[in-house]
Amino acid sequence: MTAPSPPEPAGSGAPDGNTPMDPPSLGKIFAGRFTSGDMATRRVLARVKQGLTKAGLGEEDLATVELILAEALNNVVEHAYADAPGPVELSVALQSYGLSCSIIDSGRPMPSDDAPNPDLPVIDPPIEIPEGGFGWHIIRCLTRDLEYRRDGMQNRLSMTVPLEDLER
Amino acid sequence: MNITTRTTTQGLIITVHDTRVDAAVAIEFKEAVRTEAAGGTGKVILDLSQVTFLDSSGLGAVVAIMKLLGKERPLELAGLTPPVAKVFRLTRMDSVFTIHDSLPDNLKAVG
User: What does the DSSP assignment read for A104-158?
Assistant: First the structure.
């Protein structure tokens, strides 16, 4: 039952009648403000996925985007707003060069002037098996042009997600 | 967290019926599996074939479960969907676990 299915062509399954050969349609996917929280993250990710599906992205790109945004929004919940929930602004737009994403919060600043760029935690079973420290590694692996800026009382994180479906 | 268990001659199979193992449920997931596995012996196989999304919090929970079970009760994984397999690959945690493509046939038949 877990036989691998062939990769979905761009545009397949799009509800707006795109043929499988249509390139994804560019433009705004999501722009909104919400209060940080694990369930809010779930709801927002579902909205973003809905928008990307409609724009014609395939399963693999959808999964990549969902993972990156989940990791970035989890960081906001767990670190920036560790003390109390607060407002988050997310914008996601499909560009010719990839998916451009921006996350703004008004929580605690990141510990350094740049977004973390950690090595993978040491894995040396059975002694060293890390339970955390993977989030930024995942984000760094799957994005480019990652930028973090502390602007007054705000954290501004932006990045581009390269997409398979744009490179056909 | 919706999980079910089956005892087989090969070990305890724990099937996750939720589609998401993320930050919202990571702690609950860990506790649920810990409760189900308590008191038993032998191998534990976590059937993730219905899980289509797992983030680093979910991954951390799986690792925590492995540690809780200890070396007398090795934790193996089965049925990783492509998005879940990707997280294990990116973090190189696929080198830590025995991963089955699907539940071995002899396990499907028993119990």
Answer: EE-SPPPSSSS---PPPPP-BTTTB--SS--HHHHHHHH-EEEEEEEETTEEEEE
